[in-house]
């Protein structure tokens, strides 16, 4: 016995009892059920989706952040719905697809509930209609659960807490329509048996399901989402208008057949005549009613003459509604068709203007043919779309990310973009201008002043010699050229002139980056500037156009200038700090000086009441003192040292005080009444004395 067989035998004997077929079948069913449940949860909630990583996009594209770790923004799993998280993001594709399913159920009820209520032959397929009706009811019930737990934005974040979602749903008006559409009106089938209607008994019992039409807002929501998401909005609008017209004509046809039943089939020439084997068929009944409704609403054909008042009123109402519908159709479809061709019309007008100019200026036929071919190529490649105007309303961040994704295949091939920082790439992408060159066009010639650098997006270019025949190199998508002339490398013997001839082999699409835009973008990214400079130096060394001595001297000079600038910046910072300290000290000294001046003023005012005879002299001295104090208080903010020197060189004058009035020298003043302080009172006192 071989060792391999022995090992296998031992392994099989040690595995225990073999499960029966029933147990294996039940385990398989459980695995399949759990697999289907897991896939359904992933489909609805958006979990488990993985994409192939792209290092270039992952580096430069916006990062996707998870929801905050707060209960308000976290969904919870439900035990009743197989662990499904009861929080549905309306922005996900799964929600949009679910709305499409709900719209189909609503459209079914819009068409067949009214049709089956009137055409009794249509309502005889009872078993089929039961299956479809209650399938739509199940979709309605599931949509109610989804609608209740639809997320909404609060402070820019998607709320996913089930309790908050239910409260938000109850605050809206939608819950009323959803509740009405879910009412079990089919209970009336217990007394009104389906399939019991005929030519003498209308309408059919299915009319009780008209409440299902209250779910129409969900269809309108899907229409709005589709019109926003589709790349052909005008075509979708036309389809939506046509569908609305067909539904209105269908409803009007059902109403005509019901009025014919109410008046009596075959009672006159206006109503539907049910007699005859052909007229009794469902196909003829519906087609004739639809034909009559179309003629009436569109007002484009003759209809049978009404004979009684009810018929006249119905026809008049139909004519008025038809006029409004026809005007709406013509206006909407006309504007949609014109909007579909706006870009083509504008492009054609531009091309016609160029043709007229060339004919007026008598441009040669060969050049005119080249211009026309250029227009044709531009329209075929981009539809003459002006990207700047189209994306002008977006912020720079989104514009840069769109440009990176649109031109991803080109940008990932450019070596200078592979290692640069995301901010530099965004700045450069926003400054790129697309230019289209025809076959044989020279993008640049040797010796021309270089003002732009180029990146090849599409096409092939040739680097040719001065004779125009010898091909030195071939450039393809992702190649970069012209950077040597715009980098202003010191020691370049050609200055800022082109060093090669570059010619377009066929139609070529190139990104053009101006010299000024490049330096503005590189100002904040010295590493990327050094990389570009090094590459330019390699190209110049290869052609022997770099003066190494001048280049090294420029590098040394630049480094010394950078060090000098750094030292100057440091010195300026130190001086600024010292100046701030001096200003603070001056402010404190000035405040103290003002306090001392205020005390002196108060002291001078107190001395005015001591001597009544010297009131005028005192007031004059006080005013002089105030003027002196004001002069000193108005001194500019200078240092304390300068203030002291100013006081020493310009001393404050001392006021002369009068002699004290002693009793010995002025004995007559003892009996003298005190003079009033006010000058007006003293004048009155003198006047009284003279009158005596």
Indicate the proportion of strand residues: 5-15%
- Average per-residue pLDDT, rounded, comes to 77
Helix content range of the residues, please?
A: 55-70%
Shape: extended
**CATH top level of the domain at 386-546?**
Mainly Beta
Q: Quick one: CATH superfamily of the domain at 386-546?
A: Jelly Rolls
Region (Disordered): 658-692
Keywords: Ion channel, Ion transport, Ligand-gated ion channel, Membrane, Transmembrane, Transmembrane helix, Transport
Domain Cyclic nucleotide-binding: 416-522
Biased composition (Basic residues): 679-692
Description:
With 692 residues, the protein is of the alpha+beta class. Among the domains are: 71-229; 232-340, Helix Hairpins (Orthogonal Bundle), CATH 1.10.287; 386-546, Jelly Rolls (Sandwich); 624-654, no CATH class. It is 59% helix and 6% strand. The strands form three sheets. Strands 3-10-5-8 form a four-stranded antiparallel sheet. Strands 4-9-6-7 form a four-stranded antiparallel sheet, with no helix packed on it. The longest helix has 60 residues, at 548-607. InterPro entries: CLZ_dom, CNG_cation_channel, cNMP-bd_CS, cNMP-bd_dom, cNMP-bd_dom_sf, Ion_trans_dom, RmlC-like_jellyroll. It is a multi-pass membrane protein. Residues 416-522 form the Cyclic nucleotide-binding domain.
Main attributes of the structure:
Helix Hairpins; cGMP binding; single chain; transport; ion channel; 10 strands; disordered N terminus; 692 residues; ion transport
């Amino acid at each position: 016995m071989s060792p391999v067989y022995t090992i296998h035998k031992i392994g099989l004997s040690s595995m225990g009892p073999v499960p029966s077929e029933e147990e294996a079948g039940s385990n398989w069913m459980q695995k399949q059920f759990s697999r289907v449940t897991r896939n359904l949860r992933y489909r609805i909630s958006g979990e488990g989706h993985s994409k192939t990583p792209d290092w270039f996009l992952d580096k430069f594209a916006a990062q996707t952040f998870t929801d905050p770790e707060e209960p308000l923004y976290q969904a919870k799993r439900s035990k009743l719905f197989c662990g499904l998280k009861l929080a549905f993001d309306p922005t996900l594709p799964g929600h949009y697809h679910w709305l499409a399913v709900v719209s189909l159920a609503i459209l079914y009820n819009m068409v067949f509930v009214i049709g089956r209520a009137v055409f009794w032959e249509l309502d005889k397929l009872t078993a089929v209609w039961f299956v479809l009706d209650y399938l739509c009811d199940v979709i309605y019930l599931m949509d109610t659960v989804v609608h209740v737990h639809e997320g909404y934005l609060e402070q820019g974040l998607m709320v996913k807490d089930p309790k908050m979602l239910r409260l938000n749903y109850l605050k809206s008006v939608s819950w009323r329509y959803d509740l009405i559409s879910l009412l079990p009106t089919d209970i009336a089938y217990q007394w009104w048996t389906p399939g019991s209607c005929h030519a003498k008994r209308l309408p059919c019992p299915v009319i009780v399901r008209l409440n299902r039409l209250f779910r129409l807002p969900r269809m309108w929501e899907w229409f709005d989402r589709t019109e926003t998401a589709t790349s052909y909005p005008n075509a979708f609008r036309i389809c939506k208008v046509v569908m609305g017209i067909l539904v209105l004509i269908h409803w009007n046809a059902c109403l005509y057949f019901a009025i014919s039943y109410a008046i009596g089939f075959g009672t006159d020439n206006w109503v539907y005549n049910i007699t005859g084997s052909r007229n009794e068929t469902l196909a003829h009944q519906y087609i004739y009613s639809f034909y009559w409704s179309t003629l009436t609403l569109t007002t484009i054909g003759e209809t049978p003459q009404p004979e009684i008042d009810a018929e006249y009123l119905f026809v008049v109402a139909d004519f008025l509604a038809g006029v409004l519908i026809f005007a709406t159709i013509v206006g909407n479809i006309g504007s949609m068709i014109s909007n579909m061709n706006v870009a083509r019309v504008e492009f054609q007008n531009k091309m016609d203007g160029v043709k007229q100019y060339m004919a007026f200026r008598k441009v040669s036929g060969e050049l005119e043919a080249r211009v026309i071919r250029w227009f044709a190529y531009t329209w075929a490649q981009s539809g003459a779309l002006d990207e700047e105007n189209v994306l002008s309303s977006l912020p720079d961040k989104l514009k840069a990310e769109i440009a990176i994704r649109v031109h991803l295949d080109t940008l990932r091939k450019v070596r200078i973009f592979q290692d640069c920082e995301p901010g530099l790439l965004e700045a450069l992408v926003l400054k790129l201008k697309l230019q289209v060159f025809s076959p044989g066009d020279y993008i640049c010639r040797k010796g021309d002043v270089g003002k732009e650098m180029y990146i090849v997006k599409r096409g092939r270019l040739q680097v040719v010699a001065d004779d125009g025949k010898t091909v030195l190199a071939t450039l393809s998508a992702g190649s970069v050229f012209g950077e040597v002339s715009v980098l202003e490398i010191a020691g370049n013997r050609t200055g800022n002139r082109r060093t090669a001839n570059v010619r377009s082999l066929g139609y070529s699409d190139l990104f053009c980056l101006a010299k000024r835009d490049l330096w503005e973008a590189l100002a904040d990214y010295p590493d990327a500037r050094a990389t570009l400079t090094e590459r330019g130096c390699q190209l110049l060394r290869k052609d022997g156009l770099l003066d190494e001595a001048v280049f090294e001297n420029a590098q040394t000079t630049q480094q010394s200038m950078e060090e000098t600038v750094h030292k100057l910046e440091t010195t300026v910072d130190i001086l600024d700090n010292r100046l701030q300290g001096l200003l603070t000290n001056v402010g404190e000294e000035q405040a103290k000086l003002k306090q001392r001046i205020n005390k002196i003023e108060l002291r001078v005012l107190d001395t005015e009441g001591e001597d009544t005879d010297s009131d005028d002299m005192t007031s004059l001295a006080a005013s002089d003192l105030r003027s002196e104090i004001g002069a000193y208080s108005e001194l500019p903010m200078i240092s304390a040292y300068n203030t002291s020197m100013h006081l020493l060189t310009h001393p404050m004058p001392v006021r002369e005080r009068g002699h004290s009035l002693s009793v010995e020298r002025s004995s007559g003043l003892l009996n003298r009444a005190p003079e009033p302080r006010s000058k007006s009172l003293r004048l009155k006192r003198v006047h009284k004395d003279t009158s005596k």
